[in-house]
Amino acid sequence: MTSNAIGVDFGTSNSTAAFFDGKEPVLAPLEDGKFDLPSTVFFDFETGQRKYGRSAIDAYVGDGEGRFMRALKSILGTSLEDDFTYVSGKRVAFVDIIAGFVRSIRETAEEFRGAPLDKVVAGRPVRFVDEDDDADRRAQETLERIFRTAGFEEVSFQFEPIAAALDYERSVDKEEIALIADLGGGPSDFSVVRISPAGRTRADRSGDILATGGVHVGGTDLDRLVNLRKVMPEFGMDSRLRRDFGDGTITIPRHVFVSLSTWQKIHLLYDPAILREVKDYLRLSTSPERIERLAHVLEERLGHRIALEVERSKIALTDADDAWISLAAIEKGLKVDIARAEFEAIIARETGAIRKALDVTLGDAGIGSERISALFLTGGTTAIPVVRRALLEAVPDAAVVEGDRFGSVGIGLALEARRRFG
Ligand SMILES: Nc1ncnc2c1ncn2[C@@H]1O[C@H](COP(=O)(O)OP(=O)(O)OP(=O)(O)O)[C@@H](O)[C@H]1O
Ligand SMILES: [Mg+2]
Description:
It is built from 13 helices and 20 strands. By secondary structure, it is an alpha+beta fold.
């Protein structure tokens, strides 16, 4: 039976889409045969075209004149949600930029499928916004609007870790209670779910969800922390400015450095007013060579180059004890070394917060950790050794099951789409 329903996992860092091909859920190749599409957009100023995914990254890194954006999902539920940006003098709403990205996913999947796909189950984090139910609800409404603008006629939602549980459930042969951990670029999400071969055919699974929970800490936050601690000092963070009037010096304001380290805010810095501010710093700085670098980064729009290098070194530290952050794109030969132990210290608070959210979710489930037979891991951030250890220690008796790190949520959403839409 053919279905015109699809599951779409619009992620902070990567996205996937999957549909039922009659027998099984399959991921659609979204770019050059690859199933995961980096959640990136590049507006090419020369051609006026938008590029997505790896080709957006390539165009940006290849010195294309234009505007690059990533981690746009992170604006949902924040004040940036209603914001605009200017691209070649034209005002564009962020939500429309996201809708264009989602539309391209739909169109690519339709082409692969050879049939229209107009119904969707979209993934959503357990919480878009911590401790604010209204903002959380609005974030989902905005995402629904985005999916409609992208051309879907029917839009419904499922929690991302529940979708991952549905993927895992395909492989079990007896009833068990699993802890699903989905740690990606944005929030870290957990769910405690009863899964079983019989469950696969039940329409209503609410009785099988013992608890869901999470915290707003993910891979992009770790990138920000590393960037702030290791890289931004090279661009003058925490350096001193002479007073315009009077004696003595003050510490340079932090906001430019914080935005430059935060994926979804980098593009906000490419504003003439900010550059003027930085030129003022340059005039007053006691370390002008660092502020020169900062001005160069803003003028040449190199902020995402730094963030991409930081992320690359973070990923390298998953397998290596030492790595370096290359800043050669900014200045020949410039680089910063980082050791895994140092990285672990930088993210210690975040690792603790992730573990705490897991413990709270387990507590909400009202069962002892010994009742959890499997810990199912999905999402790129579960690869980080120190994060993994924190998760494993919480459920020492559970078998560790490696999901498809980037595809489990999409597959689960396709299963859910079939259940809801046929
Ligand atoms: N081998 C690795 N080691 C450490 N981090 C990794 C690794 N591979 C990917 N990551 C990180 O995982 C994150 C992306 O994971 P994933 O694709 O699961 O996120 P996402 O689904 O886009 O985000 P979310 O579900 O939170 O919206 C990025 O922050 C990336 O840097
Ligand atoms: Mg995800």
